[in-house]
């Protein structure tokens, strides 16, 4: 028969002693786990949970002790409280040991996973860095090869041009040529000119990529540059039966490199002719502000799809050859070079187009001195 005196003796002599030692054990385990997890949120959660259990245990112990020593309650009230207190103590010890072990294992697993992730991330970053360095080396080598090849081709192309020009201008030599031979020499001259143009574009591309493009700015009058370009390409417009309308009269000078300005105009007007329609037209207009001169080159060609307008200035991107008059193929460098030249001289370039109606290329170049 369990009496109140037996419960009082057990609580005082054994219960509180067990509670104190259990508290020390739980506190030590919580502290060790907290240090093991380096003060992580999970370690703080375990410590807080254990603290809550201990507070509950001491509260129940105080309630039992109070009732047992004050003799103000019957055994039927005290005994359930004592049982709850004792069972709670056993559960607390079991959970502390079990939870600490499992939490330690979980934390170890998490730590190992974190280390593996860091190791793989480090390896991946190193691999990406090596790939990037290799890619840069390949790009540099490609630019070097491109520059050397174009530079070496320029001399024989110039020599062929000089020789053909000399022969074609020699009246005595021409008098002894048949019509077929004259046509052959003419075709050789035309294709050599195209080869020379390609070599020049390759050289400019290589210089742009290597950052060694020389730009000598001065006052450039666009009206003179446009007239020079139109004189040089009028044969192309005649061959393609395209009418050129130049409305530019006397815009203010721009601060740019005259040679590069001519190349920009040549590329844009030539494209407007080649990608036009038979009996089409190319219109050149101009506007200017206090800061810049704006030039529009509009053709009546088939137009460019809207989804391709963002790509036409990319290197080696060419418009479908089905849209071009004639049979000459493009390597896709003209617009790339044009954009780079305009940008490097402080200007901008953009394109608008409508299928079936044509395209407009607009570029700006800064003025020499804005008016006061």
Number of domains: 3
| Strand/helix succession | HHHHHEHEEHEEHEE
* Strand order, sheet with most strands: 2-4-5-7-6
How does CATH name the architecture of the largest domain?
A: 2-Layer Sandwich
Using only C-alpha atoms, the radius of gyration works out to 44 Å
| Total E-strand runs | 7
The parts where pLDDT drops under 50 for at least 5 residues are none
Give me the secondary-structure category.
alpha+beta
Q: Could you say which overall geometry the principal axes of the C-alpha atoms support?
A: rod-shaped
What's the N-to-C terminus distance? 114 Å
- CATH topology of the largest domain, by name, is Heat Shock Protein 90
Major sheet description: 5 strands, mixed
Number of helices: 8
Give the mean pLDDT: 78
Strand residue content: 5-15%
Instruction: Give the C-level CATH assignment of the largest domain.
Output: Alpha Beta
- The helix content is 55-70%
Transmembrane segments: 6-33, 45-69, 75-97
Catalytic activity: ATP + protein L-histidine = ADP + protein N-phospho-L-histidine
Protein name: histidine kinase
Organism: Candidatus Ryanbacteria bacterium RIFCSPHIGHO2_01_FULL_45_22
Can you walk through the features of this model?
The structure is a single chain. The chain is an alpha+beta fold. The protein has 3 domains: 1-118; 137-210; 219-366, Heat Shock Protein 90, CATH 3.30.565.10. The chain has helices at 4-36, 41-70, 75-169, 171-175, 179-210, 222-240, 258-274, 334-344, and strands spanning 218-220, 243-246, 254-256, 281-288, 292-299, 348-354, 358-366. The strands form 2 sheets. It has a 5-stranded mixed sheet, with helices on one face. Strand 6 (348-354) and strand 7 form a beta hairpin. Helix 1 (4-36) runs parallel beside helix 3 (75-169), helix 2 (41-70) packs antiparallel against helix 3 and helix 3 (75-169) packs antiparallel against helix 5. The chain is rod-shaped, with a radius of gyration of 44 Å. The model has no long low-confidence stretch (mean pLDDT 78). Keywords: Kinase, Membrane, Phosphoprotein, Transferase, Transmembrane, Transmembrane helix, Two-component regulatory system.
């Amino acid at each position: 028969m369990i009496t109140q005196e037996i419960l009082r003796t057990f609580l005082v002599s054994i219960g509180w002693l067990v509670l104190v030692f259990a508290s020390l054990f739980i506190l030590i385990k919580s502290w060790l786990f907290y240090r093991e997890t380096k003060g992580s949120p999970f370690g703080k959660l375990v410590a807080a949970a254990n603290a809550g259990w201990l507070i509950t245990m001491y509260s129940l112990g105080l309630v039992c002790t109070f009732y047992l020593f004050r003799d103000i309650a019957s055994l039927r009230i005290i005994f359930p409280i004592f049982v709850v207190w004792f069972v709670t103590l056993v559960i607390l010890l079991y959970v502390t040991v079990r939870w600490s072990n499992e939490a330690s294992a979980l934390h170890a697993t998490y730590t190992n996973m974190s280390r593996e992730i860091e190791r793989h991330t480090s390896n991946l970053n190193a691999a990406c860095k090596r790939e990037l360095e290799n890619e840069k080396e390949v790009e540099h080598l490609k630019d070097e090869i491109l520059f050397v090849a174009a530079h070496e081709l320029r001399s024989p192309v110039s020599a062929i041009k000089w020789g053909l020009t000399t022969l074609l201008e020699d009246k005595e030599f021409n008098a002894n040529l048949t019509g077929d031979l004259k046509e052959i020499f003419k075709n050789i001259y035309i294709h050599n000119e195209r080869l020379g143009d390609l070599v020049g574009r390759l050289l400019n591309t290589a210089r742009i990529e290597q950052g060694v493009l020389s730009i000598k700015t001065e006052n450039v009058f666009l009206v003179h540059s446009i007239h020079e370009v139109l004189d040089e390409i009028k044969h192309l417009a005649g061959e393609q039966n395209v009418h050129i309308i130049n409305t530019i009269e006397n815009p203010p000078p721009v601060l740019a490199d005259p040679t590069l300005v001519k190349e920009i105009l040549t590329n844009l007007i030539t494209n407007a002719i080649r990608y036009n329609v038979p009996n089409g037209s190319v219109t050149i207009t101009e506007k200017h502000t206090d800061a810049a001169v704006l030039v529009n080159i509009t053709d009546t060609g088939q137009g460019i799809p809207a989804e391709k307008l963002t790509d036409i200035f990319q290197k080696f991107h060419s418009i479908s050859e089905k849209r071009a008059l004639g049979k000459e193929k493009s390597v896709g460098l003209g617009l790339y070079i044009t954009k780079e030249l305009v940008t490097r001289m402080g200007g901008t370039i953009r394109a608008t187009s409508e299928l079936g109606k044509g395209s407009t290329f607009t570029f700006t170049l800064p003025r020499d001195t804005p008016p006061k």
